[in-house]
Amino acid sequence: AKANGRNNYQFYLPEMNSQASSLLNLERLLHQAIEREEFIIYYQPQVNIKTGKITGMEALVRWQQPELGLVPPEQFIPIAEENGLIVNISEWVLRNACAQNKAWQDAGFSGLRMGINLSPRQFQEPHLVQLVADILAETGLAPEFLELEITESTVMQNVEFAKTMLHILEEMGVHISMDDFGTGYSSLSYLKKFPFHTLKIDQSFVRELKDNLQDMAIISAIIALGRSLNLRIIAEGVETNEQLELLRRLDCEQIQGYFFSRPLTVENATKFMQEYWAQSWN
Ligand code: C2E
Ligand code: CA
Ligand code: CA
Ligand code: CA
């Protein structure tokens, strides 16, 4: 029994250690990631299904860690939020994605919008407004082609501060989008408080659209609401033709999802636009 107990002990302890150390390890590696240029931005197209045009891209960051491979944002963003590194990462994403959009616009893809995700921590930085202004000046991107995506939890932590920040950004001409709409508790009251241009219907409503009449009713209500408030509405997470057709019937104009395209590297996103825009002109 004694030997057994010891074996158990030895079995569990290293297991726990390795979990703890792998989190620490991830955090340690994250500290070096920016200067080692390990981040990469993927771009996912947003399409207006009425006009057949690509209206924008969402910038989605990935971490290409030499030993671990491609680390998805859901794994490292929470860590970066905790330790504050998110501020540097986000600044990097903002600068690069804005520069990329300017390059695309100069290459003829004019009118293309760039959606960039802001995290709660970043939103508490008083420097955010100045940073955005600097990056727009640096890259030469017109403010209306930058769309900052925020979720309810981003603004929830300090509603008054958030309101002030968003109004300043809005006055600068930057667009603001409410991400994951419908998943929080106070989405509706926030629509009134904050100067949003766009609503992104959360993927959870789109996912079961086929056999769920409730989701259908919710989406249809969101679209009606958004339209009456003069907002652009994007349905996220569209994966199938069936979902697309249902959304079309519900009169949803813009979609983003795997059905149309997965997030792409710069090269592939450029190719995609060349091919797609060429088609939509013919
Ligand atoms: P999000 O802002 O809601 O982004 C949409 C996520 O859904 C992306 O995951 C995208 O790849 C995925 N997606 C798009 N179309 C489909 C589809 O048809 N089906 C399914 N199943 N998924 C789809 P990703 O890139 O893994 O990003 C996850 C989250 O990480 C994002 O959710 C966002 O909250 C965060 N994130 C990504 N990049 C950044 C960033 O640069 N800064 C910050 N602060 N957060 C970021
Ligand atoms: Ca987003
Ligand atoms: Ca979303
Ligand atoms: Ca999300």
TrEMBL record:
Domain spans labelled EAL: 23-277
Full protein name: Diguanylate cyclase/phosphodiesterase
Record organism: Crinalium epipsammum PCC 9333
